[in-house]
Every structure is written in C-alpha cells, then in structure tokens.
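Worked Example 4.2. Read the sequence first, then its structure tokens.
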Amino acid sequence: MNLPALAAFLKSRRDRVRPADVGLPTGPRRRVSGLRREEVAQLAGLSADYYTELERGRGAQPSAQALAALARALRLSGDERDHLFHLADRPLPPAAQGPTAHVQPALLGLLDRLGTTPARVITDLHEALVQNEAATALLGPLPTGRGTAASFVYCWFTDPAAREIYPADDHPHHSRSFVADLQATAARRGHDTEVARMVASLRRRSEEFAALWDTHDVAVRRVERKRIVHPALGVIELDCHNLFSEDGRQRLLWFSAPPGTKGAAQLELLSVIGTQDMTATQDMIGAKDTAASGKTLPGGAALH
C-alpha cells in the first residue's frame, strides 16, 4: 500500500468537493474551500480519527467497504475510484468492475439535493444502487445483494412478493413497461453478456416475460404515473420521473405529486413518519379517518 500517495490523493479530492455539493452549509467561519476531514468521515460513515490518520499517511490498510464509502463521499469518478483502490492495494471487487456499479457523481449530487423528495439511483437493469431516506420510507430498504438477483425487473417476474408494491390491477401495465424498457436497454448495450444472461433466465422462468419479450415492443420509461402501496398510508398516486446519465447506464428516479392532491398530502405525512413503526401509524391514520367521518368509538364516545 502506497500510504503517502493515498494520503495525497484523498486530500486533493477532499479539497475539490464544495460543501454545497454534498448538502452541507457554507458559513463565514469556514477556513477551507473544500470539505473538512470530519465531514468526509461523517459522509463515509467512518471515524474522524481513522480518516485523519489516512490523510496523514498512517493507519491500517482500509477495507474495500471503506474505500467504496470514501469514493461516494468524495464524488470520485469511475477512474478515480479505481485509482483509490490501487493506491490502497485492494483488488477491485467484482461489482466494482462493471460499468454501473459506481454511482455517477452527478446523479449522486442531485440525489443529495432532493431532501424530502423520495429518490433513488438505479441502473438500466433496474438494480437500485443508492437512495435517500424519503425513498426508504416510501419504497422500503435497498436490496442487500447485487447483480441480476437485485434487479427489480428480474424480481418482478420471478418473485411474487416483488409485485406487492403495486395494486394488482396495475400489474399487467408494469409487466409490459418493464419488458419494453429492457428491450431498449438490450439494443443500446449491443452484445452484452449481462443482459443476455438476464433475458435467457427470465425466458426460462417466466412464461409471461417470454410472451411479452416476443412482442418486441420498445419504450424507455421516462415519466409515468404510478400507484404505490404503502403499509401505513395505503395507495399513494405519484408521478415517477427519470433523469438519465449521459451513457444511459444509470438513472435518477424521483417521485412527486401535484400540489393540493391527496398524493401530495401523503408525501408530506411520509416525511414526518419516515420509517417508524408502520402499525402504530396505520392506527393513527385510521383514528383520523374515523374522526373525519363522525363515527363513534366503542362505548359511545365520538372522535372530533
């Protein structure tokens, strides 16, 4: 491990990132133009002392997980991320060698700015890479795995539980939409083994997928009206927007609702309840609905 070179590289990348780039405030008392060491450590989920030792050219060899976290915190490009791993004398993990494993800094920067708007970055094969807290509250936690098994499109056709996020009446539409989007990805990637393996596996495992694939319908998902089943808030009707990276390999998804609509009110409530216990929240919502309808509680008491 080249500790002096690693230290110099980390400091140079830290100096380059502006606080506003990662959603941090900029005040008159800030003495550095880039990030502070403790801010990098916080963004990467590391201790400030450990990161400081790395920048001073000391300390233990960082793990692959720590390096990946630093790459995200410092908004490194794919080449810079690979360089960081080489300086630390760590082999690139298999997932890091693919073209979509490293979240593109531009999309990550936009994700940071969306705040209470549910948003996530996915690959063109619908593998979720990163999301904000609002998206976790709306959609649930990110899959723990990587690769084909973590693709929502793959799970849609192989795992019935994946479909519970949408009302049953909407399932045929989403099936057609997913397959049409995958057709566009397959054509754009050309002779890509990752896509070919996914398509071959889906054709074997799902008659529905095979039939839809043979229609050769193509349509890239850009803006779409979606109804999402939430465990506490019920069905939430939202607009799903897509912003694509330059190479088309990644996209930023975010969800919104027109002001004054029920969906907008549900999103506002979602920002309050977050990921707290959904059972208690459902009870609270039910009580409010009872009050609004003027129904009486057992024992004759009325909610107002």
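Now turn to a second chain, presented in exactly the same format:
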Amino acid sequence: MKTILALSIIPQVIVIKLLALAPGFIERYYSNGLYPVISKTYRYVFGWIPFSVGDVFYTLAGLLILRFLVFNIKYLFRKPLYFIREVLIVISFTYFMFHLFWGLNYYRPSIHETLGMGNDYTTEELVEFTEKLISRTNTLQLQLTGNDSLMVKVPYSRKEIYRMSSSGYAGIAKHTPGFSYTPESIKSSLFSLPLTYMGYSGYLNPFTNEAQVNSLQVDYRYPMITCHEEAHQIGYSAENEANFIGFLAATANKDPYFQYSGNAYMLRYCLNEVYRRAPDTFERLKGQMHKGILKNYAEVAAFWDRYENIAEPVFKNTFNAYLKANSQAGGIKTYSYVVALLVNYHKKNGI
C-alpha cells in the first residue's frame, strides 16, 4: 500500500499536465466550482482565529520533517528504497493537497480573456495611462498630507487595515461577481522577519487559505499588499493578476489611504515600463510627481536595504523556479505584466 502511495506522484503529475491543457475546464469546474467552496470553508474555519494557523502548521511540519530525518537518515544508505519510498509518500500527499486546495488555479485562463480585454498596448497608451495615474496619485497625496513634499503615513493599525480591506472587494464585486471576497481570513505572518530577509511582502497559505502579510513592512503599500494577498484567496494565483485585482479593490475602497496605496503602488510599475520603453518620457513624467510620493518610494527602498543579505537572491530564484513550474513562463517577471492589464482595463472602462 505504501509503495502505491509513493508511486502515485507519477499519475498525479500526468493528470495535472493534462488538466493544464484544458483551462476552460479548470475555470468552470474548479475555479468557479469546487474551489470557492473549499476556500470559503477554510476561511470560515480559520478566519476568526487571531493568529496564523498555517504558520503554526508549517512550524510543526518542519519539526516532523526534522524528526523523520533524525530517525530515518540511517536508512538512506542501509535501505535506500525504504527511505525514498517514505519521502515520496510525503511528496505525493503534499502535491495532491496543494492542487486540490488551491494550486489548480494556476491553470485557469488568463484574466484578460475572462474579462474580454486585450493583452497588448502601445507606448502612447502607456504614457496616457501613466499621466492620469500620476494626476490621481498627486491629488490623493496632497489630500492626505496637505503638503506636496510630505510622504503619506497610513494611520491605521494592521488589524484595522485587514478589517477595512474587504469593502473594496464589495465594490468591484457589484460589476464582477467573481471578485467577491467573504469571509475574511487575512493575518500578519508569524514569520514576518524571515519573510523580510527573503524579500517577500506576504504569501497565501494554500493549505489553510489564510492570507499572510509581512507585518514588519508597515508603509504606504500595506493596504495594497493586503488586497493583493486577498486576490490570491479568491482564486487568482498569478502574481500579475493578483496585483491587478488588488489594485481594483484598493482603489474601489472609499478610504483615501487605500486609494493612495493602490495608485502609488501601481504607478511604480507603469513608470518602470515607461523607463524601459522611453527613458526621456520617464524623466518628464517623474518631474510631474509630487515629492511626497517619491519619498514614499524611498522609504520602501530604505526598508528593504536594511534587510538585504546574500541569501535573498537564492530565495528569489527559488520562487522564480516555482512560478515557472506552475505555468508562469516569465517567472517573477510576470509581476510587470500587470501594466498590460491596467492599460487595457483603462481602455475598456476608464481609470
């Protein structure tokens, strides 16, 4: 029986590869069928608990793995087939649970297809959108600080931000029911310090469906990052799509700090793309921005600089490989593809 369980990883991988060829099937029967039931159930079960159950689960799992190695490493050389079988059983079980509880969302159709949008844009369209985004962000920055040279400080606690975040989703769900987000299950990660050294702002636990936010990074981006992780919870696994939906939710929120967070966050992506395509235009657009916004950007850069370490590229390369293994061919670069979604959404619906 154990051998069958260990070898089950092979047909599982084959089935997943076949399902990846049928995104319409995944969208209809998993992402809009089974997954919402699983996701809501887990959020009801774990959402009310004030700490991250998933982080506790990972800690216990790590201890059990360490215990297994201590007591079974001797079999690696004496009975290698036994050792390999035991390891494959764990891998097979984890692989199955990951895809059942969340991972199949990686193979759903691209969001621009489901929303009926294009996925390309001209430099002129990018510049037009970026100019409007600068104007909106400038207005919000001045509204919140009263001085165009002061950076925005979010006055809310982490728990207040978590509680307020769902109202933006309620707004966009009126037009796109698939963006509905209830109940909440958003928490500060117990591993915030390790996450910081690894260079991450948050993550979704696929086994408990808890959205985790790096609680050390309390700056203007915190509301947007919260909305980003919640986008993963409702079934959008691709990072670019979670950024796009997080932007829609943050800017649909009635609170101006959420609106500023979403706009300023995405403005950086657009400016980076303008710089790549037209450096001279980038300098002109940068000159239109309030100094307070630039100070917010500098604050974020200074935070990450304090925790920079030689291991961070290793973690980033590992995550990059993980993304590529789950149908995100561009790896971490897919984050920048959100600009295409933003520009085309603007073309279709207006900013």
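Notes for the reader: Strands lie at 186-188, 202-205, 210-213. Confidence is low (pLDDT under 50) at residues 314-323, 330-335.
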